[in-house]
Every structure is written in structure tokens, then in C-alpha cells.
Amino acid sequence: MKLSISALLAFTLCAGVVQADPIRQGNLEVDGAWARASIGASRPGGAYFTVRNLGNEADRLIGLSSPVSAMPMLHETTVSEEGVSRMAHVEAPEIPAGGALVLEPGGMHLMLMELTGPLEEGGTFPLTLIFETAGEVTIEVPVLSIRATGPEE
Amino acid sequence: MRHAMPLTPLQKTLWAAAMLAAAGFAGLTWSGAPGASGPSNVAQDTFRPEFRLEDAAGRVVTSDDFRGRYLLVFFGFTNCPDVCPTTLIEVAQVMDDLGSDAAQVQPIFLSVDPARDAGMGLAEYTAAFHPSILGLAGSPEATQAAAESFKVFFAREDDAAAPGGYGMAHASALYLVGPEGDWLRQYDYGTPAAEILADLQARLQGHLP
């Protein structure tokens, strides 16, 4: 999922940045994006969003890029029966036909590693999602309080 | 990731089974349920967790410093973007909602990644969630001793997909220690703040130990 800087720049320059929520791309709809404010830039940031598949065929999220992170990656938190939590890298998750890929606290999340600067509450940043079938779309992610637990209504 | 081969349903099932087995093994190798390996000189399920660690300013902090107050202890690490903030947000909510009773409860974030956390502004991290949360870190030995004393599991796991090339698997519950220093209970990961609050209030009002 780590993309080269040139690829990242190309995405930033070419992809149309759209603000309105939800955002339609092909048969997919991206909604409810938010990130938690970071403390400085030395620790990874966390962000969440939902992708709904309105079509009849499954799609896959095959790439991510954002100018705020040199290494954006999907991780899933798992908590074992013994209560031990771990994180696992998720590769190319499927968005089933008629279903959704949901990122939320305590489950799957976008980990923004190698932040290029702090994620400040009240700001926004572009995030490009690349889908196998639907192509790529860039959304604006609002940065909420460090104590936020979900997207703004 | 762009070259990832789609997995067949059977492959997915096998992977899921393998991961479950690995997680189960990790849990079994450390027989961590409270009471499973408790000190022999106290009644079953009654023990006193102890720690001797340092706060962000380098002051030594021990479990004895908090007698007379309840301790709400969470083990975590500051490079953890999901579970740790989620739990700290709940702790912050509980502390806000305790109002004037908050002085009788000390929340502690005990770092399981002390070498990295100590150099990364642990106090700044905990204060961002709530000013009352005390971040503690210590030597690897002191951290291991504290975890064993609480009978909790943590382990460093190398992971190329994690910041710095490793992550920490760690117990995700909140632990409650009473005013006498006794381990009272744990609140499992995901316990709503309101439930923790109600339990603490019942104790503070003398309805529970």
C-alpha cells in the first residue's frame, strides 16, 4: 500500500477533490470520513470512513494515498478471548455487492503513519482511495477532537 | 497491496483458522486469567498489584503512593492509534462524569513500550485525553514486573506494517485497584463509560467494596 512520492503527487494533482458527503464513485459511495486529531506528528494518526457498494458486483480497496502520511495503511484491531488486543494489516479489503466496508474505532481503521505534520482539530486533509473497479476518488477528511468517537452529524 | 491476489473463500477460512489458533496459543502460553497464578498467601482472586515506575518527569511512582484512592489502570502504548485512544476517551468521560468524586480515582496509563514512549512526550499524550491521567513508564524489567503483578499479558511483536517496525500486543482491559491496594475487578475492552461510572459510584458510596 505504500505508494511512491511521485505516485502520491500524481494522485494529489490529478484526482478531483470533492467536499460534499457522501461521495459517489462508480457504484461506490464514500461517507462518514473523520480523523482524530494527533499530538504532534511523531505518532500515527487514525482515520475512519465507510464505503457502500450500491452495485451488483464486489469491489476492492486496493490503494490509499494522502499528502499527510507517507505510509497510510488499513489495520484491524482484534481483541482475543483473553482480552489481548493486536493490530493486523488488512490488504485489499472487499466491498461486497450491496454491502459496505466500515471503518470504526475498535475495528478496522486507517492508520496514517509517517505523518508529514500534525492533524489539527478543525482542519481537513485529502485522502485518495483507489478501488479495483470503481477507480479512484479523493475525499476531504475532517479532523475532529482527540476525544471524538465518530463522525460529525 | 496492488499486487495482492484475491483469496478464495477456502483460503480465507484457512487463514482465519490459523490466526485464531495463533491468538489462542498466545493466550495459552501465558496462563493469564486473574487467580490462575496468584500469590499463594492470599485468598483466591485477592491480590495486590504492585509497581515501581516513573512518570514523564522521571519521578519514581509506586503503587503505595495511591493508598486511600481507587486506581483505574490501563496498559498501552502511545503508537497505538485505535484501542488506546478509544479506552482513554472512555476513561476521560468517566473522570468528567465523576465530578467532585474524581479526586478519589486516579487513572493510570502504564506504558508497555516504555523505551519509545518515554522519549515521545508521555505526559503530553495522556493530558490530551484528560489532565488527570498519569502516564507511567519504567525500565523493561520494572514494566514486566508490573504486568506480572497485575497478571496481564503484553508482548512486542515485529511487524513491518507498524510504526518503527513493531507493535505491542497487550491486555486491553481497564483494571480497578481499591483504596487498600487490592485488585478489585477489570472492565473489559469496550465497556461503556456509563457502566464504569455506575460501578465506581456504587463503590464510592459504599455499596460495593
TrEMBL record, chain A:
Print the keywords alphabetically: Signal
A Pfam family annotated for this chain is: PCuAC
**Keyword flag Thylakoid:** no
Residues of the signal peptide: 1-20
Keyword Signal applies: yes
Which SUPFAM superfamilies does this chain map to?
A: DR1885-like metal-binding protein
The cross-references to InterPro entries, in alphabetical order and at most eight, read: LpqE-like (IPR007410), Lxx211020-like (IPR058248), PCuAC_sf (IPR036182)
In terms of PANTHER family, this protein maps to: BLR7088 PROTEIN, COPPER CHAPERONE PCU(A)C
In its UniProt entry, what is this protein called? Copper chaperone PCu(A)C
